[in-house]
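Look over both lines:
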Amino acid sequence: MTQPIGVVEGTFAGTDPHAVYALELSEISSPHIPALAELPDVGPHATGLGNIAANISLPFELRTYGWQLQRGVRISSSDQHRAIAHRDSVIQALVDVAQDDAVPEVSVRLPGPVTTMIDGMLPSGQRIVRDPGARHDVAAAWVDAVENLTSRIHDVVGARTTIFVQEPQAGQAIEGRIRSVSGADVERALDINEVRFMWQQAATTGATVLIDTTTELAATAAEVGSVALALPKGRTHQAERTWELVDTLISAEKPVALYMPRHGDPNRFAEEFIHQYLDWGLPPESVGYLRLTSRFEMGSEQTVGPGLEWLRTMAEHAPGYLSTL
């Protein structure tokens, strides 16, 4: 029986990736997975769609209202070049801090293809999601962007990549509830089959892709790949559906990320989690497919340090406790 793996995901306060990595690597080590430093304080080129602009082959320019797709094929925007340079510096900083220590895997959070089309703009100033042809081009380029990023990380760090694909608005896009830029009307609803195909293509990349979307769409995402889910609570119908989905995926030997709420004693939390896992009938031999994930939002040194210690302690206590049952 292998152990569940702790994973770090999210954003960090400040502008120094070296400080983030020094903290991460002092608290967790393999098989647990540190996060590539995402630093919103650096600027819009270092977070959100800026991370897509840093890796995609299509030209984007940063406007006051966000990232706008440009005509042509040549990348000329200074902001997009700044995003590329920042990506390279963040990856290199991990090597600088790790020095001779191996980092077998890192996690990255990226806006998904649907999110990119909702938040990104056409040259006309409308949302990319409005134009079927642009959607096709951006969906294909998004997959290439993931491949570019994972290849860069592997070439520089020698690490595999786990990608958390953020799709919080996919449900609204399918239901036709995305407002136009002006707010005067709504964008035409996306067909769920188109969304499923985008996610299926994402899952074909060389990375471990975990789609983080709404509860209602989690099963759709799981049809084509792996997912990230909030840890279910209690004995509700929704909890039952979530554990059934986890069971289906790990039985197919696919990883599943569970966002773990950090509170209380980590050893006690691990024991309660293992009991919950077993009570729902999940196989003890499959815990190695679980990715127990701590999410940080603009995490500071004061919150990240104790949070990482909690994650490591919880993830390492769980399999030992399971073996005693």
